[in-house]
Recover the amino acids of this structure.
């Protein structure tokens, strides 16, 4: 009470002052300035009073304050805008804080009239013709407060809606709408919309609303339709949306009809206005309005969206029947808004709407259906925004439908088809050029190092996208698919795809497989997610089983298919992913599947497509970890039997793609010689392939690569390695060596046999055929007859040895066959093949030399081909051939002697060619002319000189090592030995070489050393008196170049002098 | 015979059949193959006496041992846990190898190591026979009533084993597990039959019937008369060369013989209206002949390295299975489950339902059980598995 009095005193002062001013203004004594001052003072007091002591301020005080203002307003015709504005502000405060709901109806009516007039754009009967924003704003706020006050009492509401006030009501609404629509600034629009909302929503009854409906709707539509030239304040939008919602709900809502029937006694006007017919008419007009308004769904502000969502909800829940034609629009807007805004009130509202009315569910389903039908078209377009929107729109719809447990059978089907079509269109090459981008398939070896790359995350690149646009599109489809699959592991979804999978072709099939893969992946992931364990328990752990099974079966058959036409690598990639998924799901159990699943992966690994290789490796990694192998290598080695079978069947079926040999190569390298016994029939198949396809040098080369890999591994076989040690190794041969060059031997020779047959030493090595007298030389060097006798023993010996070990293991036969086969391919046109064949022989010879019965004939078979290689165009082939000769000498020993004798001149020529490389071309050509002509390859010498140093060195080194072997393992004639010394003159420091020479002829070696200055010249022993000969002079160090000639002269001369001396 | 030619052309229009798998591991000739335990295992015996028990689903050996010191003439199974092997070392062994024991055995195949002795299964019986020829043993249940119960019954049922006797052409029948000689069947009286080459026994019309194929090319059916004497009820010389194999077909009631010559012969069993029929195949040397369990088809293993499948009804060739480069010596069909075959077409959904509950290995086992395998063992030491008809 205390406060009230005090307040009253404060107000009184201002009120009195204003009243006086008003009175004097009336009489023309005061100008408007004073009025304004006084008013402002009062307004200030009132505002501060109501804000600080709002509870004290009551209707009576309001009445008191209003009095002078009312007095002033009587002169409104002349009052300035500012004056009116402040008055209205004041009144608004009074209504808001003072009267509140107790505002006298009469006063309210008057205020409405006043404010309506003042808020009008061109008010009537005033000193000015146009209102201002401020005045409009003030009057609208004033109206707002009046309406708010009135709304709280029935009587108040009636005041405005009774028949008499009706025209004025229309006027007011019109003014408000004008203000909102055309208001120049934000403030009057906000105020106007607030007032309008207060009026329409809270004050007037349904009957009045119905009456004003057409006008209101059309004006509100204009306001709410988004326009580029004018952006409306969000508050305005929210209020207007609210008004519209209330209007529609109350006038054309479904419940309205029921309630009106309840109150039959209600006025007849209502019955006529809201008749069914009227509603139908309204509906047709409202629809375009709504569709315009719904463009707000993309408004930036969430609160606006929420209001729009409320309007939509009204349309759906309350106007489902009457405004049926708007339901779809509303639903569409709701879904659109929900799709961009997760977990919003909109979504939950929508969900409950769907739950309460199944007909909406049906509507949503058909809408989704339509959307899906257009999906492929949208995805083909170039507007990424639309694509994104469509994607999220579809997922939102789908999610909602699943959440409200709608029947998804048809939808799933359509969805799958839509996704498939979209995917197929997306991955379809856009131009012919892209289509041709498939790489040609050169045969290239897949290195083992690909297996070393261990990636633990089994990441698969996007298999389908070949360029960026595709990828984004696919990602969109992917996101839809993931959502769909998450909710629906149902078979209906999968059966659709699987049904199509096997019968579709090309991109469509790829799309189908892709979908199946994705959906299964998601289903598997969901089923294994920890929080989903309980959920899935009732369905059994294999809810995804069927699709996984289908996926696996199809993937396998796709990969295993061996058609002539190369398959689309994208399809293969997806299939690989399918296998990996199955493996990951099955875990250790997948070992049982490896019999079928492992080979196809290796097969694709051997394709030239990089992407496929990577995917294959990922798949192998997945296998490895799923099956619990330590490494991919283990995976292959432990399942090599399966691979063998697969490869053998492939080769047997004359499938001559390069993959099977590639895989075999990999297997042999990884699994080693233990695998070889199983490869017998495989090798046979390869031989058959070699026979049938010898015209394909690349394939032949690849096959031989495999064969030489087998040979290398086979040569390591313990059975063979052991027998090699037992057999006559180098040691045995050494003792068999030619050793007559000891001084004693020489003396014996000179004294005994030499006079009988001078030519013997030189004739023997040149003429003899494979004989084996060397074995016995040691025992009885002088007895030539004994040699012949012992020969039989020597020949028998290998028989004995061959009988001792168990029959040759399978590996031996394998190696033997491989080696034997090389003869047909040694003249091949491909230099690399020739070289690799020669090195293959080098590898296998030590292993197969064990069984002389078959080995020696084999040498006989191969020899001509090997010798022919000495005239090869390619120096490295020549070098290899020389090496092979050396190896043969090592393992076949003296069996080779006659052959070496024959080939010796050629070897020396080759050596000369290497040493004479600095000389003019002509000379080197003539040096080997006869051989060149014989072999009809005039170009050979040219290529020799072309290759210069490297090739010469290569050949020289090969010659040196071969000469060493020849000297070491064969008996050589003195002439040959001399020449060998010549060839080896630069290699004398090598221990092996030296040892070999030493064992054969230490004296000759010594002589060479002396000549080369490595050893001091010995003192000449004194010649016994009166002998008709003298010691030959040792060559001087300086004349090294002529070593060969001198050496021979010395020895020959020596012998000659000695023999001449004899008698 | 004239009708066979177009048929051949027809079948060769199809892509040549490929084996589903080739089991590698024996070094010596395969002389016998046999499916057991619902086709989950395959038993193979080779010329060096090695026996391998293969896990059919995963195609790997589970047990390898050297059962005999000489050629393995025949292998068979008795129930699920007993394996019978018959070698030229004059022994017939019955081994006990229960599924749960398998893990204890060596799986190293002879091809990797043919010298090391492996652990042998528990030897239940070992009969010493006079085996100088190539005739493998034959067996049937001891009591005819039990034949209806199927071979898979777990109960200890006794069996009869027929083996070549001491004298040329004689047949000894021994019961197991009692190891009691039940009968000795003499050779034909008027003919010089030579050695017994193939034998089979079955219960028919309440009595034991023995069928014998002889070196002379004769085939004979023996039955006991009222005085318990064995007498021939059928004799026929269908072949110019020794009989190599014979197998019984119960529907219609007959038996087929194959020989070193090119003829396949059908002979009636006692009481049957089937007529004797010869088919000239033009492929001499058909070492093995076997019926599938449904008896709709039979197959021969030929020295030309091919296995051939024939229709029982028409005796026409249906397929040529060519893979081996050397002669085929042994052949076996997997047992076919009749009921499964019938439901196969109609009840795919049910199948899928069942399938879903199985683990990967179970699925594989199920597949192995139901596949219509044909196993052919060859001189090259390999066994090819075919999935046909």
């Amino acid at each position: 009470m205390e406060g009230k009095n005090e307040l009253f005193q404060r107000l009184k002062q201002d009120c009195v002052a204003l009243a006086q001013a008003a009175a004097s203004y009336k009489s023309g004594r005061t100008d408007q300035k004073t009025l304004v001052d006084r008013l402002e003072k009062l307004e200030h007091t009132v505002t501060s009073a109501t804000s600080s002591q709002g509870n004290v301020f009551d209707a009576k005080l309001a009445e008191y304050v209003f009095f002078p203002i009312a007095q002033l307003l009587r002169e409104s015709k002349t009052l300035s805008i500012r004056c009116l504005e402040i008055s209205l502000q004041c009144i608004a405060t009074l209504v808001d804080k003072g009267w509140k709901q107790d505002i006298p109806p009469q006063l309210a009516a008057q205020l409405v009239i006043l404010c309506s007039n003042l808020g009008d754009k061109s008010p009537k009967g005033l000193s000015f013709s146009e209102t201002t924003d401020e005045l409009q704003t003030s009057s609208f706020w004033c109206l707002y407060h009046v309406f708010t006050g009135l709304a709280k009492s029935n009587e108040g509401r009636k005041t405005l809606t009774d028949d008499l006030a009706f025209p004025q009501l229309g006027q007011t609404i019109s003014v408000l709408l004008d203000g909102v629509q055309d208001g120049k600034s934000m403030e009057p629009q906000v105020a106007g919309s607030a007032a309008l909302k207060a009026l329409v929503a809270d004050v007037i009854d349904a009957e009045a609303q119905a009456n004003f409906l057409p006008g209101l709707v059309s004006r509100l539509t204009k306001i709410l339709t988004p326009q580029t030239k004018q952006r409306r304040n969000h508050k305005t939008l929210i209020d207007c949306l609210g008004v519209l919602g209330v209007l529609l709900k109350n006038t054309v809502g479904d419940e309205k009809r029921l309630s009106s029937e309840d109150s039959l006694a209600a006025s007849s006007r209502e019955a006529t206005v809201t008749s069914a017919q009227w509603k139908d008419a309204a509906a047709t007009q409202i629809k375009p309005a709504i569709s315009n308004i719904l463009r707000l769904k993309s408004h930036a502000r969430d609160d606006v969206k929420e209001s729009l969502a409320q309007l939509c909800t009204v349309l759906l829940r309350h106007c489902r029947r009457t405004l049926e034609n708007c339901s779809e629009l509303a639903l569409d807007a709701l879904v659109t808004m929900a799709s961009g805004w997760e977990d919003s009130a909109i979504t939950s509202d929508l969900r409950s709407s769907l739950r309460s009315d199944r007909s909406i569910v049906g509507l949503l389903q058909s809408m989704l259906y339509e959307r899906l039908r257009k999906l492929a078209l949208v995805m083909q377009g170039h507007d990424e925004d639309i694509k994104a929107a469509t994607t999220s729109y579809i997922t939102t719809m789908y999610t909602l439908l699943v959440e409200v447990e709608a029947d998804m059978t048809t939808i799933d089907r359509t969805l799958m088809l839509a996704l498939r079509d979209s995917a197929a269109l997306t991955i379809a090459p856009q131009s012919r050029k892209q289509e041709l981008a498939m790489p040609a398939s050169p045969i290239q070896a897949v290195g083992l190092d690909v297996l070393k790359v261990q990636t633990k995350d089994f990441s698969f690149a996007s298999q389908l996208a070949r360029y960026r646009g595709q990828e984004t599109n696919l990602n969109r489809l992917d996101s839809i698919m993931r959502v769909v699959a998450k909710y629906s592991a149902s078979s209906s979804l999968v059966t659709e795809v699987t049904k199509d999978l096997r019968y579709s072709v090309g991109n469509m099939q790829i799309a189908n497989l892709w979908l199946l893969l994705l959906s299964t992946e998601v289903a598997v992931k969901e089923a294994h997610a920890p929080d989903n364990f309980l959920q899935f328990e009732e369905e059994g752990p294999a809810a995804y089983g069927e699709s996984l099974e289908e996926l696996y079966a199809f993937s396998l058959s796709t990969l295993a298919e061996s058609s002539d036409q190369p398959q689309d690598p994208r399809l293969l990639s997806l299939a690989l992913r399918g296998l990996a998924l199955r493996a990951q799901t099955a875990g250790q159990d997948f070992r049982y599947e490896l019999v079928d699943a492992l080979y196809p992966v290796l097969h694709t690994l051997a394709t030239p497509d990089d992407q496929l290789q990577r995917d294959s490796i990922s798949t192998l990694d997945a296998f490895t970890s799923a099956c619990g192998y330590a490494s991919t290598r283990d995976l292959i080695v432990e399942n090599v039997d399966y691979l063998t079978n697969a490869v053998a069947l492939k080769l047997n079926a004359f499938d001559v793609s390069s993959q099977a040999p590639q895989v075999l190569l990999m297997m042999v390298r990884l699994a080693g010689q233990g695998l070889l016994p199983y490869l017998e029939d495989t090798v046979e198949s390869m031989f058959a392939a070699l026979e049938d396809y010898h015209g394909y040098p690349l394939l032949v080369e690849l096959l031989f690569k495999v064969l030489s890999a087998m040979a290398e591994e086979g040569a390591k076989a313990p059975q063979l390695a052991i027998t090699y040690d037992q057999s006559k190794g180098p040691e045995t041969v050494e003792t068999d060596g030619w050793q007559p060059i000891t001084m004693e031997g020489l003396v014996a020779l000179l004294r005994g046999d030499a006079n009988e047959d001078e030519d013997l030493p030189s004739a023997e090595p040149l003429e003899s055929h494979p004989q084996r007298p060397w074995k016995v030389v040691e025992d009885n060097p002088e007895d030539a007859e004994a040699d012949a006798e012992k020969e039989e023993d020597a020949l028998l010996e290998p028989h004995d040895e061959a009988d001792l070990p168990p029959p040759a293991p399978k590996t031996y036969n394998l190696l033997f066959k491989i080696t034997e086969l090389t003869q047909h391919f040694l003249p091949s046109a491909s230099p690399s093949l020739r070289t690799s064949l020669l090195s293959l022989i080098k590898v296998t010879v030590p292993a197969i030399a064990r069984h002389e019965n078959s080995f020696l004939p084999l040498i006989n078979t191969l020899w001509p081909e090997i010798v022919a290689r000495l005239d090869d165009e390619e120096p490295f082939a020549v070098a290899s051939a020389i090496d092979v000769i050396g190896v043969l000498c090592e393992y076949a020993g003296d069996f080779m002697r006659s052959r070496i004798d024959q080939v010796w001149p050629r070897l020396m020529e080759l050596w000369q060619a290497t040493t004479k490389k600095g000389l003019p071309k002509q000379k080197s050509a003539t040096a080997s002319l006869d051989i060149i002509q014989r072999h009809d390859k005039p170009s050979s010498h040219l290529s020799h000189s072309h290759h210069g140093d490297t090739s010469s060195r290569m050949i020289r080194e090969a010659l040196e090592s071969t000469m060493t072997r020849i000297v070491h393992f064969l008996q050589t004639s003195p002439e040959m030995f001399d020449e060998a010394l010549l060839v080896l003159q630069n290699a004398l420091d090598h221990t092996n070489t030296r040892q070999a020479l030493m064992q054969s002829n230490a004296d000759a070696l010594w002589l060479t050393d002396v000549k080369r200055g490595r050893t001091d010249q010995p003192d000449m022993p004194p010649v016994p008196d009166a002998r008709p000969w003298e010691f030959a002079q040792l060559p001087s160090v300086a004349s090294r170049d002529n070593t060969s000639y001198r050496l021979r002269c010395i020895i020959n001369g020596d012998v000659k002098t000695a023999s001449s001396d004899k008698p | 015979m004239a009708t066979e030619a177009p048929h051949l052309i027809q079948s060769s229009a199809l892509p040549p059949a490929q084996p589903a798998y080739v089991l590698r591991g024996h070094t010596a000739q395969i002389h016998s193959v046999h499916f057991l335990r619902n086709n989950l295992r395959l038993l193979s015996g080779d010329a060096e006496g090695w026996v391998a028990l293969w896990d059919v689903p995963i195609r790997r050996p589970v047990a390898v041992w050297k059962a005999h010191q000489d050629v393995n003439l025949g292998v068979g199974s008795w129930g699920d846990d007993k394996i019978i092997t018959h070698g030229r070392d004059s022994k017939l062994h019955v081994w006990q190898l229960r599924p749960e024991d398998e893990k204890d055995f060596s799986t190293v195949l002879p091809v990797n190591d043919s010298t090391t002795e492996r652990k042998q299964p528990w030897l239940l019986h070992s009969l010493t026979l006079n085996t100088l020829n190539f005739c493998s043993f034959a067996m049937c249940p001891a009591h005819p009533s039990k034949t209806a119960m199927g071979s898979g019954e777990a109960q200890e049922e006794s069996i009869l084993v027929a083996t070549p006797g001491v004298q040329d052409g004689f047949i000894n029948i021994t019961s197991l597990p009692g190891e009691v000689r039940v009968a000795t069947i003499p050779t034909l009286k008027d003919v010089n039959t030579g050695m017994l080459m193939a034998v089979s026994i079955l219960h028919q019309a309440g009595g034991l019937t023995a069928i014998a194929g002889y070196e002379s090319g004769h085939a004979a059916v023996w039955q006991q008369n009222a005085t318990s004497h064995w007498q021939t009820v059928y004799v026929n010389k269908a072949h110019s060369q020794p009989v190599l194999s014979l197998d019984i077909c119960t529907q219609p009631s007959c038996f087929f013989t194959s020989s070193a010559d090119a003829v396949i012969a059908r002979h009636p069993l006692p009481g049957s209206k089937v007529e004797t029929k010869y088919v000239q195949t033009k492929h001499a040397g058909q070492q093995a002949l076997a019926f599938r369990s449904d008896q709709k088809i039979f197959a021969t293993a030929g020295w030309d390295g091919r296995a051939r499948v024939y229709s029982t009804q028409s005796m026409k060739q249906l397929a040529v299975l060519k893979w081996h480069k050397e002669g085929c010596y042994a052949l076996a069909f997997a047992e076919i489950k009749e009921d499964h075959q019938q439901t196969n077409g109609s009840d795919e959904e049910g199948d899928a339902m069942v399938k879903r509950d199985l683990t990967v290995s179970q699925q594989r086992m199920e597949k192995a059980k139901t596949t219509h395998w044909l196993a052919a063992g060859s001189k090259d030491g390999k066994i090819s598995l075919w999935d046909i008809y």
